[in-house]
């Protein structure tokens, strides 16, 4: 059987409220003594030790908290630095973007200027070309005029003017050529500048994109790192909380231990007082002064000193405890205050969530009113369950009905096939009958034809027979004709007989086919009856299947074919055994401490009172016996745990244990004998070794 | 017109036994989580059958289930396993509250002759996924388990099966007048597994 996890832990308030010492648990070994030995003065160190341990735990927790807080601060500062870097990078990217836009605008402006310049150049070129053409035309006209002017030598001034005009025209041409060359060179330089600017632009855009990608990657990395750090911090916080809870629980346990020890201390004091009383009674009884009197006095003085010391120690201890209690109360109050402040902050959120929940509740209640058969929220799961059951039942019924439908369809198909076959056979038979009828008719026609021919022939013969005298010479020929006719008649009659026989056969065949059709119809009816009976059987089988399924679900089985096995698991044993081990160990430690205290007492007291010595020795013997029994129990439990937690296969691989398994389990079929043998062997090994 | 052909994988007896025993392991973990037999924080999420499945981290329960699966696969390969039942009982009274029944039909021809079958792995995974979804949604109609509970596993085997060292014969731990809900089934063509949950009647719950 598998056990659930241990029951929920007690709350701290309940533990503090229940200040009365808890009763001893069933697992602890409590040794009840009427005369416990006196507690030495050094026992207060034990109480101090636990307090120091608790303080150390608290100090560790506080240190861990401070380190976690420091880490938190560091992470926060890193986050801020990263955010600042991000903002810087964003500002730089904005700058680059602005620069990029500015360069783009400059590019566009330069291109536009270039276009304007080109247009101007083109215009100038066109104007210069037009002027050049005009001048050429005028030049041509002038050249035409030159031969005329040559004739007219009396007009040298016009020639000179024309040359001047030509020279001026050439100069203008050259100027225009130069201008054109300049314009082309400027256009080329502008093109080069534009290409350079474009290259720079592309480089800038690439660099900007690279920087953007880099920045986005860095952003993503910082985000993921921040998330990771936040999750780590949360995990650390939870760990700290768990540690604090554990520390609180340990403190509670230590308190309980303290109370137990205090009880024992009180018992020891009580026993000590009783011993003192006895000692004092012994001293009173001895009237004669003997050698023991000074010893007894000495012992009494020592006892008084011890008592005073013990009282002082008690006072110190009580004062220490009060201080510690006050400190703890202070810390608790501080913690409560912080918790209250946290919870106050959460109150508002809770109120908001409460309002939301109330709104949802009201909406759900309104919805509930719409649902038929539901008056309160408790009815809803019942309604759901009933609806689901109905759905399940209806689906089951649907399935059954579908199965029946399919079966009926199958049977219907079979019946239809049979019917079709029968109809086909009937049609074939009908066709055969019709064919036979047609043959019969044909044969009857032939018969009628043949009888007509026969009658004709007979009439011919009779006609031929009457004029005997006239035709004596042809009698022989006529006789032969008559014989031939008679032969043909006989043949025809034979044919007629054969046809009649075939008619009879056909009639018989028809009768047989009619009978077959009747048999098929009867078979059809039988098949339909069988189908109906099969349907009934199918319904019955479905009901049986549902019954069997219900039984299967219920878990029934036939013992002739099956057996039910369960795996043995040792988890419960392990948990219980661990708890018993812990309890036994604590008991062992306590008894050992008591033994030490008793032995110290014995060494301090020395020869005072033979009764005390004997009593103490008896106590020592008893404690030693208890220690031995506790150790034995611990060993047995440890061996049981080692047996239960190891797997069976590992066990069987060991030769000794496999031998024991064969002997005790397979042959003798008893597990307790096997475990007992194992414990004895382990005890012998440990004690003898 | 293009026709889709479903790729079929060859399944052997050993492979089918492994699929079924693995399914049982995950189903048991899912049931223990959904029914609250163990606390939620003791489970960890893993991906299986295309779904987020929860597995216990308790060492004892883990070893118990792993040993169980090993034995179940052995019986499945031998064709001796008829049924596996996960029983949830009250810790205080030992009363059986729920029975998760996994019935197994084995193709004996495969066990005797050692032949293999063909079925798509995706199809099997889809069928198992449907069952896991139904197990998760069963909390809507199953009654709440308010008290501490424990679980146990029963195996219905053939009569001639040798009882292993860590197993003992037991009663069937039945529920009187149970409510039953049949869930989906899955088929590897060698082993067919039907799932059914039976629980204590609601009227009896209310009376108590």
Task: Sum up the structure in keywords.
heterodimer, A: 689 residues, mainly alpha, 11 helices, flat, B: alpha+beta, five-stranded antiparallel beta sheet, 34% helix, disordered N terminus
Radius of gyration of chain A over all CA atoms, rounded: 65 Å
Helix amount of chain A, in percent? over 70%
Characterize the main sheet of chain B.
5 strands, antiparallel
Helix-strand topology string of chain B:
EHEEHEEHEHEEEEH
Number-wise, the strands of chain A total 1
What count of helical segments of chain A does DSSP give?
11
User: What is the overall pLDDT average of chain B?
Assistant: 89
| Multimeric organization | heterodimer
Q: Give the overall shape of chain B, derived from the CA principal axes.
A: globular
Find the count of extended strands of chain B (DSSP E, 2+ residues).
10
Strand content of chain A: under 5%
The radius of gyration of chain B is 18 Å
The secondary structure category of chain A is: mainly alpha
Poorly predicted segments of chain A: 1-48
Which overall shape of chain A is indicated by the principal axes computed on the Cα atoms?
A: flat
């Amino acid at each position: 059987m598998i056990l659930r996890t241990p029951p929920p832990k007690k709350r701290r308030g309940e533990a503090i409220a229940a200040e009365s010492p808890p009763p001893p648990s069933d697992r602890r070994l409590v040794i009840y003594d009427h005369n416990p030995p006196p507690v030495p003065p050094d026992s207060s160190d034990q109480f101090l030790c636990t307090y120091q341990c608790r303080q150390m735990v608290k100090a560790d927790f506080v240190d861990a908290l401070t380190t976690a807080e420091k880490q938190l601060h560091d992470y926060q500062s890193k986050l801020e630095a990263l955010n600042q870097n991000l903002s810087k990078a964003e500002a730089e990217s904005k700058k680059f973007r602005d620069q990029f836009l500015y360069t783009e605008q400059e590019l566009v402006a330069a291109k536009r200027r270039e276009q304007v310049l080109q247009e101007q150049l083109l215009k100038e070129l066109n104007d210069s070309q037009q002027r050049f053409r005009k001048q050429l035309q005028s030049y041509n006209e002038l050249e035409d005029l030159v031969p005329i002017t040559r004739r007219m030598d009396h007009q040298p001034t016009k020639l000179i003017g024309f040359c001047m005009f030509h020279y001026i025209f050439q100069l203008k041409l050259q100027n225009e050529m130069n201008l054109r060359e300049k314009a082309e060179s400027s256009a080329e330089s502008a093109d080069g500048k534009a290409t350079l600017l474009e290259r720079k632009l592309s480089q800038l855009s690439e660099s900007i994109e690279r920087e953007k990608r880099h920045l986005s990657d860095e952003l993503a990395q910082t985000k993921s790192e921040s998330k990771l750090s936040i999750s780590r911090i949360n995990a650390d916080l939870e760990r700290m909380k768990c540690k604090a809870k554990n520390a609180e629980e340990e403190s509670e346990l230590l308190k309980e231990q303290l109370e137990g020890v205090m009880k024992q201390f009180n018992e020891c004091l009580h026993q000590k007082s009783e011993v003192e009383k006895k000692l004092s009674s012994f001293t009173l009884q001895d009237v004669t002064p003997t050698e023991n009197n000074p010893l007894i006095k000495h012992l009494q003085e020592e006892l008084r000193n011890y008592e005073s010391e013990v009282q002082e120690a008690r006072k110190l201890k009580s004062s220490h405890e009060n201080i510690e209690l006050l400190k703890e109360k202070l810390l608790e109050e501080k913690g409560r205050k912080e918790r209250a402040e946290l919870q106050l902050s959460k109150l508002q959120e809770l109120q908001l969530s409460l309002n939301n929940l109330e709104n949802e509740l009201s909406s759900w209640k309104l919805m509930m009113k719409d649902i038929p058969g539901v008056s309160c929220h408790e009815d809803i799961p019942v309604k759901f369950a009933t609806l689901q059951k109905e759905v399940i039942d209806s689906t089951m019924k649907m399935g059954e009905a579908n199965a029946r439908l399919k079966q009926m369809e199958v049977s219907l198909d079979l019946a239809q096939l049979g019917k079709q076959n029968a109809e086909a056979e009937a049609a074939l038979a009908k066709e055969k009958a019709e064919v036979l009828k047609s043959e019969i008719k044909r044969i009857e026609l032939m018969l009628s034809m043949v009888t007509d021919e026969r009658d004709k022939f007979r009439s011919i013969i009779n006609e031929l027979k009457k004029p005997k005298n006239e035709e004596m010479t042809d009698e022989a020929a006529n006789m032969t004709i008559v014989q031939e006719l008679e032969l043909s008649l006989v043949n025809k009659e034979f044919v007629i007989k054969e046809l009649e026989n075939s008619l009879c056969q056909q009639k018989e065949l028809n009768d047989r086919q009619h009978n077959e059709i009747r048999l098929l119809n009867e078979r059809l009816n039988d098949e339909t009856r069988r189908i109906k009976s099969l349907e009934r059987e199918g319904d019955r089988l479905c009901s049986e299947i549902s019954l069997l399924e219900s039984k299967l679900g219920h878990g029934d089985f036939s013992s002739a074919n099956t057996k039910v096995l369960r795996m043995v698991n040792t988890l419960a044993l392990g948990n219980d055994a661990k708890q018993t081990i812990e309890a036994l160990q604590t008991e062992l430690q306590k008894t050992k401490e008591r033994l030490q205290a008793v032995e110290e007492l014995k060494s301090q007291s020395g020869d005072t009172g033979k009764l005390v010595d004997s009593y103490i020795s008896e106590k020592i013997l008893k404690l030693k016996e208890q220690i031995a029994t506790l150790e034995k129990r611990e060993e047995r439990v440890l061996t049981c745990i080692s047996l239960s937690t190891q797997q069976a296969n590992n066990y069987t691989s060991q030769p000794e244990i496999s031998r024991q398994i064969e002997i005790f389990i397979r042959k003798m079929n008893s597990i307790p004998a096997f475990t007992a043998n194992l414990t004895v062997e382990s005890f012998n090994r440990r004690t003898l070794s | 017109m293009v026709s889709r052909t479903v790729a079929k994988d060859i399944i052997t007896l050993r492979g089918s036994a492994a699929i079924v025993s693995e399914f049982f392991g995950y189903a048991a973990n899912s049931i223990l989580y959904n029914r609250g037999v163990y606390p939620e924080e003791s489970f960890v999420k893993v991906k299986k059958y295309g779904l987020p499945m929860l597995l216990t981290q308790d060492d004892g329960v883990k070893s118990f289930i792993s040993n169980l699966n090993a034995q179940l696969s052995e019986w499945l390969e031998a064709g001796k396993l008829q049924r596996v039942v996960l029983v949830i009982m009250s810790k205080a009274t030992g009363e059986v509250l729920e029975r998760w029944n996994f019935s197994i039909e084995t193709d004996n021809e495969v066990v005797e002759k050692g032949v293999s079958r063909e079925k798509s792995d995706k199809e099997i995974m889809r069928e198992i996924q449907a069952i896991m979804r139904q197990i998760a949604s069963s909390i809507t109609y199953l009654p709440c388990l308010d008290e501490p509970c424990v679980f146990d596993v029963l195996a219905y085997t053939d009569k001639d099966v040798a009882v292993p060292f860590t197993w003992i014969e037991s009663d069937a731990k039945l529920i009187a007048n149970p409510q039953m809900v049949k869930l989906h089934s899955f088929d590897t063509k060698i082993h067919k597994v039907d799932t059914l949950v039976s629980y204590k009647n609601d009227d009896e719950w209310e009376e108590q």
